[in-house]
Amino acid sequence: MPENPVAVFQRATEALLAHDMAAFTALYADDAVMEFPFAPSDRPQRLDGRAAVEAYLAGYTDWLDIRRIHDVTVHETTDPQVIVAEMAASGLVVATGKPYTARYIAVLTIAGGRIRHYRDYWNPLAMAELSAA
Question: pTM for the full model?
Answer without folding.
Answer: 0.89
